[in-house]
Amino acid sequence: MIxxxxxxxxxxxxxxVILILTVLPLLSMLSAALQPADRIPTGFxxxxxxxxxxxxxxxxxxxxxxxxxxxxxxxxxxxxxSLLFATLAGYALGNLRVKGGQVVLVAMVLGLTIPFEAIVxxxxxQITSYGVLNTQWAIILPLIGLYMPxxxxxxxxxxxxxxxxxxxxxxxxxxGILQEFRRIQIPLARPALSALGILLFLWTWNQFxxxxxxxxxxxxxTMAGALGAFQGQYIDTLxxxxxxxxxxMLPTIIVYVIFQRQFVKALLQGAVKG
Amino acid sequence: xxxxxxxxxxxxxxxLLPAVxxxxxxVLYPLLTAVQYSFYKWNGIGASTWVGFNNYVQIFTDPTLxxxxxxxxxxxxxxxVIPIVSGLVLATLIRDMRPGPFAxxxxxxxxxxxxxxxxxxxxxxxxxxxQTGTINQILNAxxxxxxxxxxxxxxxxxxxxxxxxxxxxxxxxxxxxxxxGMGKIDPALYEAARIDGAGxxxxxxxxxxxxxxxxxxxxxxITVISALxxxxxxYTTTKGGPGTTTLVPGISIFRLAFVQGQVGLASxxxxxxxxxxLAVVLPVQRISREKD
Lengths: 274, 292
Prior knowledge:
Chain A has 13 helices and no strands. By secondary structure, chain A is an all-alpha fold. Chain B has one domain: MetI-like fold.
Protein backbone atom coordinates (compact mmCIF):
# COMPACT_ATOMS: atom_id res chain seq x y z
CA MET A 1 0.00 0.00 0.00
CA ILE A 2 1.55 3.23 -1.11
CA UNK A 3 0.56 6.15 1.05
CA UNK A 4 2.68 9.25 0.68
CA UNK A 5 2.22 11.66 -2.21
CA UNK A 6 5.76 11.35 -3.53
CA UNK A 7 5.38 7.59 -3.68
CA UNK A 8 2.21 7.95 -5.74
CA UNK A 9 4.04 10.21 -8.19
CA UNK A 10 7.09 7.93 -8.38
CA UNK A 11 4.79 4.95 -8.95
CA UNK A 12 3.00 6.70 -11.81
CA UNK A 13 6.26 7.73 -13.44
CA UNK A 14 7.63 4.17 -13.26
CA UNK A 15 4.45 2.83 -14.79
CA UNK A 16 4.43 5.39 -17.60
CA VAL A 17 8.06 4.64 -18.44
CA ILE A 18 7.27 0.91 -18.64
CA LEU A 19 4.23 1.58 -20.83
CA ILE A 20 6.37 3.65 -23.22
CA LEU A 21 8.95 0.85 -23.33
CA THR A 22 6.17 -1.59 -24.14
CA VAL A 23 4.91 0.27 -27.20
CA LEU A 24 8.25 1.71 -28.33
CA PRO A 25 9.38 -1.32 -30.40
CA LEU A 26 6.08 -1.37 -32.26
CA LEU A 27 6.05 2.39 -32.85
CA SER A 28 9.65 2.45 -34.00
CA MET A 29 8.85 -0.37 -36.42
CA LEU A 30 5.96 1.72 -37.74
CA SER A 31 8.18 4.76 -38.19
CA ALA A 32 10.74 2.65 -40.06
CA ALA A 33 8.03 1.09 -42.21
CA LEU A 34 7.10 4.56 -43.47
CA GLN A 35 10.58 5.47 -44.68
CA PRO A 36 11.62 5.09 -48.35
CA ALA A 37 11.53 1.40 -49.20
CA ASP A 38 14.88 1.16 -50.94
CA ARG A 39 17.02 2.72 -48.23
CA ILE A 40 18.22 1.52 -44.85
CA PRO A 41 15.96 3.35 -42.43
CA THR A 42 17.52 5.70 -39.93
CA GLY A 43 16.33 5.97 -36.36
CA PHE A 44 13.02 6.64 -34.77
CA UNK A 45 11.37 9.72 -36.22
CA UNK A 46 8.07 10.47 -37.86
CA UNK A 47 9.08 10.79 -41.52
CA UNK A 48 8.23 14.17 -43.03
CA UNK A 49 7.02 12.34 -46.09
CA UNK A 50 5.48 9.06 -44.82
CA UNK A 51 5.50 6.32 -47.46
CA UNK A 52 2.16 4.70 -46.71
CA UNK A 53 2.35 2.98 -50.07
CA UNK A 54 4.94 0.63 -48.47
CA UNK A 55 2.02 -1.17 -46.90
CA UNK A 56 0.36 -1.61 -50.28
CA UNK A 57 3.63 -2.85 -51.79
CA UNK A 58 4.23 -5.26 -48.92
CA UNK A 59 0.66 -6.48 -49.26
CA UNK A 60 1.08 -7.19 -52.98
CA UNK A 61 4.66 -8.46 -52.97
CA UNK A 62 3.95 -10.72 -50.00
CA UNK A 63 0.77 -12.18 -51.60
CA UNK A 64 -1.06 -11.28 -48.44
CA UNK A 65 -4.44 -12.23 -49.92
CA UNK A 66 -3.17 -15.73 -50.62
CA UNK A 67 -1.65 -15.89 -47.15
CA UNK A 68 -4.83 -14.76 -45.48
CA UNK A 69 -6.65 -17.50 -47.34
CA UNK A 70 -4.08 -20.07 -46.29
CA UNK A 71 -4.11 -18.98 -42.64
CA UNK A 72 -7.89 -18.91 -42.59
CA UNK A 73 -8.10 -22.41 -44.06
CA UNK A 74 -5.77 -23.68 -41.35
CA UNK A 75 -7.65 -21.88 -38.58
CA UNK A 76 -11.08 -22.90 -39.88
CA UNK A 77 -10.15 -26.59 -39.76
CA UNK A 78 -7.90 -26.69 -36.70
CA UNK A 79 -9.98 -24.67 -34.26
CA UNK A 80 -13.43 -26.33 -34.66
CA UNK A 81 -12.02 -29.86 -34.89
CA SER A 82 -9.83 -29.33 -31.82
CA LEU A 83 -12.78 -27.85 -29.94
CA LEU A 84 -14.97 -30.83 -30.83
CA PHE A 85 -12.39 -33.48 -29.88
CA ALA A 86 -11.49 -31.66 -26.66
CA THR A 87 -15.12 -31.24 -25.66
CA LEU A 88 -15.98 -34.90 -26.23
CA ALA A 89 -12.97 -36.04 -24.22
CA GLY A 90 -13.44 -33.41 -21.53
CA TYR A 91 -17.02 -34.59 -21.08
CA ALA A 92 -15.93 -38.23 -20.80
CA LEU A 93 -13.30 -37.36 -18.20
CA GLY A 94 -15.14 -34.67 -16.25
CA ASN A 95 -18.74 -35.85 -16.33
CA LEU A 96 -18.90 -39.53 -17.28
CA ARG A 97 -15.71 -40.25 -15.28
CA VAL A 98 -14.86 -43.16 -17.55
CA LYS A 99 -12.93 -46.03 -16.02
CA GLY A 100 -9.31 -45.78 -17.07
CA GLY A 101 -9.72 -42.10 -17.83
CA GLN A 102 -7.11 -41.20 -15.20
CA VAL A 103 -4.40 -42.67 -17.42
CA VAL A 104 -5.53 -40.50 -20.32
CA LEU A 105 -5.55 -37.45 -18.07
CA VAL A 106 -2.02 -38.05 -16.77
CA ALA A 107 -0.73 -38.62 -20.31
CA MET A 108 -2.35 -35.37 -21.43
CA VAL A 109 -0.94 -33.36 -18.50
CA LEU A 110 2.56 -34.62 -19.28
CA GLY A 111 1.92 -33.59 -22.88
CA LEU A 112 1.60 -29.99 -21.71
CA THR A 113 5.35 -29.87 -21.09
CA ILE A 114 6.54 -31.30 -24.42
CA PRO A 115 8.38 -28.64 -26.47
CA PHE A 116 7.44 -28.73 -30.16
CA GLU A 117 11.16 -28.95 -31.00
CA ALA A 118 11.34 -32.39 -29.38
CA ILE A 119 8.89 -33.94 -31.85
CA VAL A 120 9.19 -31.81 -34.96
CA UNK A 121 11.82 -34.10 -36.60
CA UNK A 122 9.74 -37.31 -36.53
CA UNK A 123 6.70 -35.23 -37.53
CA UNK A 124 8.57 -34.18 -40.66
CA UNK A 125 9.09 -37.78 -41.75
CA GLN A 126 5.60 -38.81 -40.65
CA ILE A 127 3.97 -36.00 -42.63
CA THR A 128 6.16 -36.85 -45.62
CA SER A 129 4.97 -40.46 -45.51
CA TYR A 130 1.35 -39.25 -45.54
CA GLY A 131 2.16 -37.34 -48.73
CA VAL A 132 0.94 -34.01 -47.36
CA LEU A 133 4.28 -32.27 -46.87
CA ASN A 134 4.14 -28.70 -48.27
CA THR A 135 0.36 -28.50 -47.97
CA GLN A 136 -1.75 -26.86 -45.30
CA TRP A 137 -2.53 -30.36 -43.96
CA ALA A 138 1.07 -30.60 -42.80
CA ILE A 139 0.23 -27.86 -40.30
CA ILE A 140 -3.39 -28.77 -39.61
CA LEU A 141 -2.96 -32.43 -38.62
CA PRO A 142 -0.14 -32.05 -36.07
CA LEU A 143 -1.67 -28.93 -34.54
CA ILE A 144 -4.89 -30.80 -33.71
CA GLY A 145 -2.86 -33.43 -31.86
CA LEU A 146 -0.64 -30.85 -30.18
CA TYR A 147 -3.65 -28.89 -28.89
CA MET A 148 -5.22 -31.96 -27.26
CA PRO A 149 -3.38 -31.83 -23.91
CA UNK A 150 -4.39 -28.25 -23.25
CA UNK A 151 -7.84 -28.51 -24.82
CA UNK A 152 -8.85 -31.69 -23.01
CA UNK A 153 -7.50 -30.41 -19.72
CA UNK A 154 -9.42 -27.17 -20.18
CA UNK A 155 -12.75 -28.77 -21.09
CA UNK A 156 -12.44 -31.37 -18.35
CA UNK A 157 -12.05 -28.54 -15.83
CA UNK A 158 -15.28 -27.05 -17.17
CA UNK A 159 -17.27 -30.30 -17.06
CA UNK A 160 -16.12 -31.08 -13.53
CA UNK A 161 -17.76 -27.83 -12.47
CA UNK A 162 -21.14 -28.77 -13.98
CA UNK A 163 -23.37 -30.46 -11.37
CA UNK A 164 -23.91 -34.12 -12.23
CA UNK A 165 -27.52 -33.94 -11.03
CA UNK A 166 -28.15 -32.17 -14.32
CA UNK A 167 -27.18 -35.23 -16.32
CA UNK A 168 -29.12 -37.50 -14.00
CA UNK A 169 -32.23 -35.38 -14.41
CA UNK A 170 -31.87 -35.55 -18.18
CA UNK A 171 -31.45 -39.33 -18.07
CA UNK A 172 -34.58 -39.71 -15.95
CA UNK A 173 -36.41 -37.78 -18.64
CA UNK A 174 -35.27 -40.48 -21.06
CA UNK A 175 -32.46 -38.63 -22.88
CA GLY A 176 -29.56 -40.74 -24.16
CA ILE A 177 -25.96 -39.71 -23.62
CA LEU A 178 -25.69 -38.14 -27.06
CA GLN A 179 -28.91 -36.21 -26.68
CA GLU A 180 -27.97 -34.95 -23.25
CA PHE A 181 -24.53 -33.95 -24.56
CA ARG A 182 -25.98 -31.97 -27.44
CA ARG A 183 -28.99 -30.37 -25.80
CA ILE A 184 -27.70 -29.67 -22.31
CA GLN A 185 -23.93 -29.87 -22.04
CA ILE A 186 -22.87 -28.03 -25.21
CA PRO A 187 -24.99 -24.92 -24.57
CA LEU A 188 -23.70 -24.78 -20.99
CA ALA A 189 -20.11 -25.10 -22.17
CA ARG A 190 -20.33 -22.12 -24.51
CA PRO A 191 -18.22 -19.67 -22.42
CA ALA A 192 -15.48 -22.26 -21.87
CA LEU A 193 -15.59 -23.14 -25.57
CA SER A 194 -15.34 -19.57 -26.80
CA ALA A 195 -12.42 -18.82 -24.50
CA LEU A 196 -10.61 -21.93 -25.73
CA GLY A 197 -11.48 -21.03 -29.31
CA ILE A 198 -9.89 -17.58 -28.97
CA LEU A 199 -6.72 -19.09 -27.53
CA LEU A 200 -6.46 -21.73 -30.25
CA PHE A 201 -6.99 -19.08 -32.92
CA LEU A 202 -4.14 -17.00 -31.54
CA TRP A 203 -1.77 -19.95 -31.16
CA THR A 204 -2.50 -21.14 -34.69
CA TRP A 205 -2.14 -17.73 -36.28
CA ASN A 206 1.18 -17.13 -34.51
CA GLN A 207 2.55 -20.64 -35.05
CA PHE A 208 6.01 -20.44 -36.56
CA UNK A 209 8.10 -23.60 -36.12
CA UNK A 210 5.72 -26.09 -37.77
CA UNK A 211 5.17 -24.03 -40.95
CA UNK A 212 8.91 -23.34 -41.15
CA UNK A 213 9.76 -27.04 -41.09
CA UNK A 214 6.78 -28.66 -42.77
CA UNK A 215 5.84 -26.21 -45.54
CA UNK A 216 8.41 -24.86 -47.99
CA UNK A 217 6.09 -22.58 -49.94
CA UNK A 218 5.42 -19.43 -47.87
CA UNK A 219 2.06 -19.06 -49.62
CA UNK A 220 0.81 -22.21 -47.91
CA UNK A 221 1.94 -21.25 -44.42
CA THR A 222 0.38 -19.39 -41.55
CA MET A 223 0.84 -15.61 -41.57
CA ALA A 224 3.56 -15.79 -38.93
CA GLY A 225 5.30 -18.61 -40.78
CA ALA A 226 5.34 -16.63 -44.03
CA LEU A 227 6.80 -13.63 -42.23
CA GLY A 228 9.86 -15.77 -41.47
CA ALA A 229 10.39 -16.26 -45.21
CA PHE A 230 9.96 -12.54 -45.94
CA GLN A 231 12.84 -11.84 -43.60
CA GLY A 232 15.25 -13.43 -46.06
CA GLN A 233 13.68 -11.83 -49.14
CA TYR A 234 13.39 -8.26 -47.86
CA ILE A 235 16.93 -7.90 -46.59
CA ASP A 236 17.52 -4.86 -48.82
CA THR A 237 14.09 -3.36 -48.37
CA LEU A 238 13.69 -3.31 -44.61
CA UNK A 239 10.80 -0.81 -44.57
CA UNK A 240 8.77 -3.36 -46.57
CA UNK A 241 9.63 -6.12 -44.08
CA UNK A 242 8.46 -3.91 -41.23
CA UNK A 243 5.26 -3.09 -43.09
CA UNK A 244 4.67 -6.81 -43.65
CA UNK A 245 5.28 -7.55 -39.94
CA UNK A 246 2.70 -4.91 -39.02
CA UNK A 247 0.20 -6.38 -41.50
CA UNK A 248 0.68 -9.84 -39.97
CA MET A 249 0.19 -8.44 -36.48
CA LEU A 250 -2.91 -6.49 -37.32
CA PRO A 251 -5.50 -9.32 -37.22
CA THR A 252 -4.30 -10.47 -33.81
CA ILE A 253 -4.48 -6.93 -32.47
CA ILE A 254 -7.99 -6.46 -33.91
CA VAL A 255 -9.16 -9.71 -32.32
CA TYR A 256 -7.51 -8.63 -29.07
CA VAL A 257 -9.21 -5.25 -29.03
CA ILE A 258 -12.65 -6.69 -29.87
CA PHE A 259 -12.54 -9.61 -27.44
CA GLN A 260 -10.24 -7.93 -24.95
CA ARG A 261 -12.11 -8.97 -21.84
CA GLN A 262 -12.66 -12.60 -22.81
CA PHE A 263 -9.16 -12.68 -24.21
CA VAL A 264 -7.35 -11.70 -21.06
CA LYS A 265 -9.64 -13.91 -19.00
CA ALA A 266 -9.05 -16.84 -21.31
CA LEU A 267 -5.28 -16.45 -21.33
CA LEU A 268 -5.20 -16.11 -17.56
CA GLN A 269 -7.44 -19.07 -16.88
CA GLY A 270 -5.43 -20.92 -19.47
CA ALA A 271 -2.31 -20.03 -17.56
CA VAL A 272 -3.74 -21.17 -14.25
CA LYS A 273 -5.11 -24.41 -15.61
CA GLY A 274 -2.13 -25.10 -17.82
CA UNK B 1 -20.05 -56.11 -15.22
CA UNK B 2 -23.71 -55.41 -15.95
CA UNK B 3 -24.82 -54.73 -19.48
CA UNK B 4 -25.63 -51.10 -18.62
CA UNK B 5 -22.22 -50.51 -17.08
CA UNK B 6 -20.50 -52.07 -20.06
CA UNK B 7 -22.46 -49.86 -22.44
CA UNK B 8 -21.59 -46.76 -20.38
CA UNK B 9 -17.93 -47.70 -20.44
CA UNK B 10 -18.03 -48.18 -24.18
CA UNK B 11 -19.81 -44.85 -24.70
CA UNK B 12 -17.26 -43.08 -22.51
CA UNK B 13 -14.34 -44.44 -24.49
CA UNK B 14 -16.02 -43.50 -27.74
CA UNK B 15 -16.13 -39.92 -26.48
CA LEU B 16 -12.44 -40.13 -25.60
CA LEU B 17 -11.40 -41.79 -28.83
CA PRO B 18 -10.89 -38.83 -31.23
CA ALA B 19 -8.79 -36.83 -28.77
CA VAL B 20 -6.76 -39.84 -27.69
CA UNK B 21 -6.19 -40.90 -31.30
CA UNK B 22 -5.02 -37.42 -32.34
CA UNK B 23 -2.75 -37.24 -29.30
CA UNK B 24 -1.26 -40.70 -29.85
CA UNK B 25 -0.72 -40.12 -33.55
CA UNK B 26 0.77 -36.62 -33.51
CA VAL B 27 2.38 -36.31 -30.09
CA LEU B 28 3.20 -39.63 -28.42
CA TYR B 29 4.13 -41.54 -31.55
CA PRO B 30 6.52 -38.80 -32.80
CA LEU B 31 7.96 -38.54 -29.30
CA LEU B 32 8.72 -42.26 -29.14
CA THR B 33 10.11 -42.10 -32.67
CA ALA B 34 12.38 -39.24 -31.59
CA VAL B 35 13.70 -41.40 -28.75
CA GLN B 36 14.30 -44.19 -31.25
CA TYR B 37 16.11 -41.86 -33.72
CA SER B 38 18.29 -40.61 -30.89
CA PHE B 39 20.08 -43.96 -30.71
CA TYR B 40 21.03 -43.93 -34.39
CA LYS B 41 23.40 -42.08 -36.64
CA TRP B 42 21.26 -41.08 -39.61
CA ASN B 43 21.57 -38.37 -42.24
CA GLY B 44 17.84 -38.44 -42.95
CA ILE B 45 18.04 -40.16 -46.33
CA GLY B 46 20.44 -43.10 -46.41
CA ALA B 47 20.90 -46.05 -44.09
CA SER B 48 21.09 -45.57 -40.34
CA THR B 49 23.52 -47.14 -37.87
CA TRP B 50 22.83 -47.99 -34.25
CA VAL B 51 25.18 -45.98 -32.03
CA GLY B 52 23.73 -46.58 -28.56
CA PHE B 53 24.18 -43.60 -26.26
CA ASN B 54 26.86 -42.00 -28.43
CA ASN B 55 24.66 -39.08 -29.46
CA TYR B 56 23.96 -38.29 -25.81
CA VAL B 57 27.63 -38.57 -24.91
CA GLN B 58 28.43 -36.19 -27.75
CA ILE B 59 25.86 -33.65 -26.49
CA PHE B 60 27.48 -33.53 -23.07
CA THR B 61 31.07 -33.40 -24.32
CA ASP B 62 30.92 -31.21 -27.43
CA PRO B 63 31.11 -27.51 -26.41
CA THR B 64 29.04 -26.39 -29.43
CA LEU B 65 26.23 -28.70 -28.24
CA UNK B 66 26.58 -27.76 -24.58
CA UNK B 67 26.47 -24.05 -25.37
CA UNK B 68 22.78 -24.03 -26.36
CA UNK B 69 21.77 -25.83 -23.15
CA UNK B 70 23.80 -23.41 -21.06
CA UNK B 71 22.36 -20.40 -22.93
CA UNK B 72 18.82 -21.67 -22.44
CA UNK B 73 19.42 -21.85 -18.69
CA UNK B 74 20.72 -18.25 -18.72
CA UNK B 75 17.57 -17.20 -20.57
CA UNK B 76 15.56 -18.24 -17.50
CA UNK B 77 16.85 -15.04 -15.84
CA UNK B 78 15.28 -12.98 -18.63
CA UNK B 79 12.15 -15.03 -19.28
CA UNK B 80 11.29 -15.91 -15.68
CA VAL B 81 13.07 -13.83 -13.03
CA ILE B 82 12.84 -10.38 -14.63
CA PRO B 83 9.18 -10.67 -15.79
CA ILE B 84 7.95 -12.02 -12.43
CA VAL B 85 9.84 -9.44 -10.37
CA SER B 86 8.72 -6.56 -12.59
CA GLY B 87 5.25 -8.10 -12.70
CA LEU B 88 5.09 -7.95 -8.89
CA VAL B 89 6.16 -4.29 -8.87
CA LEU B 90 3.80 -3.27 -11.69
CA ALA B 91 0.86 -5.21 -10.30
CA THR B 92 1.33 -3.54 -6.91
CA LEU B 93 1.46 -0.13 -8.59
CA ILE B 94 -1.65 -0.74 -10.68
CA ARG B 95 -3.59 -2.22 -7.76
CA ASP B 96 -2.91 0.77 -5.55
CA MET B 97 -4.19 3.11 -8.22
CA ARG B 98 -7.75 4.31 -8.30
CA PRO B 99 -9.60 2.20 -10.86
CA GLY B 100 -10.10 4.33 -13.93
CA PRO B 101 -9.11 4.74 -17.56
CA PHE B 102 -5.40 4.92 -16.73
CA ALA B 103 -5.39 1.61 -14.87
CA UNK B 104 -7.39 -0.05 -17.66
CA UNK B 105 -5.15 1.36 -20.40
CA UNK B 106 -2.07 0.24 -18.49
CA UNK B 107 -3.38 -3.33 -18.37
CA UNK B 108 -4.36 -3.33 -22.04
CA UNK B 109 -1.03 -1.97 -23.23
CA UNK B 110 1.09 -4.18 -20.97
CA UNK B 111 -0.67 -7.25 -22.31
CA UNK B 112 -0.15 -6.33 -25.97
CA UNK B 113 3.27 -8.06 -26.42
CA UNK B 114 1.62 -11.32 -25.39
CA UNK B 115 -0.73 -11.09 -28.40
CA UNK B 116 1.55 -10.30 -31.32
CA UNK B 117 3.35 -13.16 -33.11
CA UNK B 118 6.82 -13.71 -31.63
CA UNK B 119 8.23 -13.52 -35.17
CA UNK B 120 6.92 -9.97 -35.53
CA UNK B 121 8.26 -9.13 -32.07
CA UNK B 122 11.66 -10.45 -33.13
CA UNK B 123 11.63 -8.31 -36.27
CA UNK B 124 10.58 -5.21 -34.32
CA UNK B 125 13.34 -5.72 -31.80
CA UNK B 126 16.07 -6.44 -34.32
CA UNK B 127 15.34 -2.94 -35.59
CA UNK B 128 15.45 -1.50 -32.04
CA UNK B 129 18.90 -3.06 -31.56
CA UNK B 130 20.28 -2.23 -35.03
CA GLN B 131 23.27 0.07 -35.56
CA THR B 132 20.99 2.85 -36.84
CA GLY B 133 18.11 1.72 -34.63
CA THR B 134 16.14 3.28 -31.83
CA ILE B 135 18.24 2.18 -28.83
CA ASN B 136 21.44 3.72 -30.19
CA GLN B 137 19.50 6.81 -31.16
CA ILE B 138 18.30 7.21 -27.56
CA LEU B 139 21.82 6.64 -26.22
CA ASN B 140 23.19 9.33 -28.54
CA ALA B 141 20.45 11.72 -27.49
CA UNK B 142 21.30 11.40 -23.79
CA UNK B 143 25.05 11.67 -24.37
CA UNK B 144 25.85 7.99 -23.97
CA UNK B 145 26.67 7.59 -27.65
CA UNK B 146 29.97 5.88 -26.81
CA UNK B 147 27.94 2.88 -25.65
CA UNK B 148 26.18 2.49 -28.98
CA UNK B 149 26.83 -0.66 -30.94
CA UNK B 150 25.10 -3.28 -33.00
CA UNK B 151 23.62 -4.99 -29.95
CA UNK B 152 22.70 -8.30 -31.54
CA UNK B 153 26.05 -8.68 -33.30
CA UNK B 154 28.20 -8.01 -30.23
CA UNK B 155 29.51 -11.12 -28.45
CA UNK B 156 29.02 -9.53 -25.05
CA UNK B 157 25.52 -8.15 -25.48
CA UNK B 158 23.73 -10.51 -27.88
CA UNK B 159 22.41 -12.97 -25.27
CA UNK B 160 21.10 -10.36 -22.80
CA UNK B 161 19.65 -8.47 -25.78
CA UNK B 162 17.56 -11.40 -27.01
CA UNK B 163 16.75 -12.26 -23.39
CA UNK B 164 15.25 -8.83 -22.85
CA UNK B 165 12.92 -9.43 -25.79
CA UNK B 166 11.57 -12.34 -23.76
CA UNK B 167 11.19 -10.05 -20.75
CA UNK B 168 9.27 -7.62 -22.96
CA UNK B 169 6.90 -10.37 -24.14
CA UNK B 170 6.25 -11.97 -20.74
CA UNK B 171 6.12 -9.04 -18.29
CA UNK B 172 2.54 -8.17 -19.25
CA UNK B 173 1.32 -11.73 -18.74
CA UNK B 174 2.98 -11.84 -15.31
CA UNK B 175 1.59 -8.45 -14.30
CA UNK B 176 -1.98 -9.23 -15.26
CA UNK B 177 -1.98 -12.69 -13.69
CA UNK B 178 -0.43 -11.40 -10.45
CA UNK B 179 -2.95 -8.56 -10.44
CA UNK B 180 -5.80 -11.08 -10.49
CA GLY B 181 -4.09 -13.02 -7.71
CA MET B 182 -3.72 -9.91 -5.58
CA GLY B 183 -7.38 -9.10 -6.11
CA LYS B 184 -8.29 -12.31 -4.30
CA ILE B 185 -6.35 -11.43 -1.13
CA ASP B 186 -8.63 -10.54 1.78
CA PRO B 187 -8.20 -6.79 2.55
CA ALA B 188 -8.69 -7.61 6.25
CA LEU B 189 -5.25 -9.26 6.18
CA TYR B 190 -3.69 -5.92 5.23
CA GLU B 191 -5.67 -4.10 7.92
CA ALA B 192 -4.59 -6.55 10.59
CA ALA B 193 -0.94 -6.35 9.54
CA ARG B 194 -1.06 -2.56 9.48
CA ILE B 195 -2.52 -2.41 12.98
CA ASP B 196 0.43 -4.52 14.06
CA GLY B 197 2.62 -1.74 12.68
CA ALA B 198 3.82 -3.44 9.50
CA GLY B 199 5.46 -1.15 6.94
CA UNK B 200 5.20 -1.26 3.15
CA UNK B 201 7.90 -3.87 2.69
CA UNK B 202 6.57 -6.03 5.50
CA UNK B 203 3.05 -5.93 4.03
CA UNK B 204 4.45 -6.97 0.69
CA UNK B 205 6.54 -9.85 2.02
CA UNK B 206 4.10 -11.26 4.56
CA UNK B 207 0.71 -10.62 2.96
CA UNK B 208 1.05 -10.00 -0.80
CA UNK B 209 3.73 -12.58 -1.64
CA UNK B 210 2.13 -15.53 0.18
CA UNK B 211 -1.20 -14.51 -1.33
CA UNK B 212 0.03 -14.88 -4.90
CA UNK B 213 2.12 -18.00 -4.34
CA UNK B 214 -0.07 -20.11 -6.59
CA UNK B 215 0.11 -17.55 -9.41
CA UNK B 216 3.89 -17.42 -9.08
CA UNK B 217 4.10 -21.21 -9.39
CA UNK B 218 2.05 -21.11 -12.57
CA UNK B 219 4.14 -18.28 -14.01
CA UNK B 220 7.42 -19.98 -13.18
CA UNK B 221 6.20 -23.10 -14.98
CA ILE B 222 5.04 -21.31 -18.12
CA THR B 223 7.97 -18.92 -18.40
CA VAL B 224 10.62 -21.57 -17.77
CA ILE B 225 9.14 -23.71 -20.53
CA SER B 226 9.19 -20.74 -22.91
CA ALA B 227 12.80 -19.93 -21.95
CA LEU B 228 14.12 -23.45 -22.48
CA UNK B 229 12.18 -24.04 -25.69
CA UNK B 230 12.57 -20.56 -27.17
CA UNK B 231 12.88 -20.57 -30.95
CA UNK B 232 10.90 -17.89 -32.78
CA UNK B 233 12.62 -14.88 -31.19
CA UNK B 234 16.13 -16.23 -31.65
CA TYR B 235 15.45 -17.42 -35.20
CA THR B 236 14.25 -13.99 -36.29
CA THR B 237 16.93 -11.96 -34.50
CA THR B 238 20.30 -13.72 -34.33
CA LYS B 239 19.82 -17.32 -35.55
CA GLY B 240 22.14 -18.28 -32.69
CA GLY B 241 25.02 -15.94 -33.48
CA PRO B 242 27.40 -14.30 -33.18
CA GLY B 243 29.40 -17.51 -32.72
CA THR B 244 27.35 -19.67 -30.40
CA THR B 245 26.51 -16.85 -27.99
CA THR B 246 22.73 -16.99 -28.50
CA LEU B 247 22.41 -20.57 -29.69
CA VAL B 248 19.50 -22.36 -27.96
CA PRO B 249 18.46 -26.04 -28.19
CA GLY B 250 15.57 -25.24 -30.57
CA ILE B 251 17.86 -23.59 -33.12
CA SER B 252 20.48 -26.34 -32.84
CA ILE B 253 17.84 -29.04 -33.35
CA PHE B 254 16.50 -27.25 -36.41
CA ARG B 255 19.96 -26.79 -37.92
CA LEU B 256 21.29 -30.25 -37.12
CA ALA B 257 18.23 -32.02 -38.50
CA PHE B 258 17.30 -29.92 -41.51
CA VAL B 259 20.56 -28.27 -42.58
CA GLN B 260 23.40 -30.55 -41.48
CA GLY B 261 21.66 -33.91 -41.87
CA GLN B 262 22.39 -35.16 -38.34
CA VAL B 263 18.93 -36.44 -37.55
CA GLY B 264 19.96 -38.81 -34.75
CA LEU B 265 21.99 -36.20 -32.91
CA ALA B 266 19.24 -33.60 -33.33
CA SER B 267 16.65 -36.02 -31.94
CA UNK B 268 18.86 -36.75 -28.94
CA UNK B 269 19.10 -33.02 -28.27
CA UNK B 270 15.28 -32.83 -28.44
CA UNK B 271 15.01 -35.60 -25.84
CA UNK B 272 17.54 -33.81 -23.62
CA UNK B 273 15.49 -30.61 -23.97
CA UNK B 274 12.33 -32.40 -22.85
CA UNK B 275 14.12 -33.94 -19.85
CA UNK B 276 15.51 -30.51 -18.98
CA UNK B 277 12.00 -29.01 -19.03
CA LEU B 278 10.65 -31.81 -16.81
CA ALA B 279 13.63 -31.52 -14.46
CA VAL B 280 12.82 -27.87 -13.84
CA VAL B 281 9.02 -27.95 -13.96
CA LEU B 282 8.26 -31.04 -11.85
CA PRO B 283 10.18 -29.89 -8.73
CA VAL B 284 8.47 -26.48 -8.93
CA GLN B 285 5.07 -28.18 -8.97
CA ARG B 286 6.05 -30.42 -6.07
CA ILE B 287 7.34 -27.58 -3.90
CA SER B 288 4.14 -25.61 -4.38
CA ARG B 289 2.01 -28.65 -3.59
CA GLU B 290 3.94 -29.48 -0.42
CA LYS B 291 3.39 -25.99 0.90
CA ASP B 292 -0.38 -26.15 0.36
